[in-house]
User: Fold these one by one.
Assistant:
Number 1:
Amino acid sequence: MKFSRSAVRQKAHALPELRFENQKLTSFAGLVIFQTFFATVDLKASLRGCFRHLNGKKVYDRATVFLQLIVHLLLGLRDLQHCRYYRDDPLVKRLLGLKRIPDVATVSRVLKEAGTKCVENLRRLLREMVLDRLMSIAPARSTLDFDGSVQATKRRAEGTAVGYCKKKKGARSYYPLFCTIAQTLQVLDFLHRSGNVHDSNGAEAFILACIDAVRAAVPSAVIEVRMDSAFFSDRIVRALNERGVEFTISVPFERFTELKGMIEQRRRWRRVDGETWYFENEWKPKRWGQRFRFLFIRTRAKKQQKGPVQLDLFIPYEYGYEFKVIVTNKTLRAKRVVRYHEGRGSQEGIFGELKSDCHIDYVPVRTRCGNEVYLLAGLFAYNLTRELQMQTTQPSRRTTAKRASLWVFERVDTVRKTLIQRAGRLTHPNGAYRLTISANAWIRARLLRTLNAIQPAQETG
């Protein structure tokens, strides 16, 4: 359809007159979806149970403040001081069930007062919500990925230490270990640690606890685990194998000089695709009591390797190629095992989204438990956004070789910009609340479709 120039353009030279009035305007009209969704999953009551052990009646109960932190992160805000930006927003108040939003000092004080019992209860609730979703979809395979992620800070917060930090060398940090579920792209649990520990510190008990929790929830599913070379050890490999868990673990070249010689002596490589070749061997390190399947993989390098190659005593070098070794107990063809292990990259995407969109890299207070609670608020915001999409849409994939998620998810930031950050006006005509939003046909269809998908689930529950 063509329009005339006069129908498209308009002159606007005069500046509008500014007025500031209390008209119950909201910048986050899309929160009406989350208000309905939180009622569906009974989030407020569940959070109250996490803080029930604390005595004393306060104006702002701790569960409401923690819910505010979840909403705070859903809105895309980071520092605690940013809660001033929505202190007068009527829809945020209604979602929290408050007439007045807590100020910065109140939120900070609640975080500082948090103890280990609060952290354990919130971690338990986080696990239960993820496992409930797993039980509802009953996947044939449940794939667990384990890896750590650095939380750097300029504070001298309790429990931080100077460790490896790529972006801020010499900074104090935490180094939590995360367990994520590949099928739902949710975080199942985490193990909080100081920044100066190795990836494997406390990892064995944490890994086995996560496996036991998933097995109890979906006993018929085949449990799979993927890890990088930091977790490679005889104890972890034997523990996984004895529990009947299928695994692939990267092998560090630095600890086994034999690996370099095996690769350099190899002349015939089998093809995976145009970029990858492999060979396999039944092998074990000298002190191990059992042989396992080791896959040796050669990948065409896209970048030229730079640096003092002559000083590389352990890592094999051949111009134009990169090498890695995987240990596994899977009986699939080597091509499928390689693709399966490459699927670990999805966890890096989770960490990127958690840090950029849910700000888990922010350390708000000086107490360790308070910082863990803030980290948990970010994990809840992320997992709940995933759960909202799973509850309102159908799975779009089956199990793939790389174990891609069963749903094609929108990022938290995309949900925020397309749904949450919508201007609206909250009115109360004839005793009924009404939320008025601009007449955008796409937004109207999206909001109504999502709300209609949530409400039947609420009635069924």
Number 2:
Amino acid sequence: MNIPIIFEDDWLLIVDKPAGLLSVPTPKHEARTLTSILNQDACERGLEYHLYPCHRLDRETSGLLIYAKSRSIEEKLAGAFRDRLVSKQYIAFVHGKFPQPQGVINWAIEGKNALTKYRVIQERSNYSVVEVSPVTGRTNQIRIHFKHIQHPLVGEDKFAFRKDFTLRAKRLCLHAKYLEFKHPQTAKVMVIQSPLPADMQKFLDEHQS
């Protein structure tokens, strides 16, 4: 697969994950994941490093994913994610309109505190384009939180029934577009951005009203 590389140096590789591809294997032990594809490519090219994912994205979510080229760098960045030292932003297409242009969703997931901030960027007739900033990093947090406030993501089929909505999408409309963090080796502040993928842009173009 053609996996876009957004940034690379001696310690990190940051890629733009396509929707529909697992980051890492689930308990089902899938063989084909983004991690396995990247490591196989590195092996075939004779590169000496092994890539370790520093965080994860859902299978259906596209966008920025950081890999470390050593276990020690992975541990430092994974710790930064745990300590909420990494700023993350997503773009989501969400069913319905919001009464306020911005808000905070504070609702526990599996007994653990979970906090998501959001800001409405555009309103269409039956959906909204929302910039989402998860403060915590619970599994499926954005999807669960927007379902909780009765505004599930467009294309959602795990936490909402597609048949309940006339607006359909071929995939979950969620894209990890922005990361800001301190480089674990150089201490430089890194700001990494990814443009809206072509399929989500096409959806916007086809559903302008």
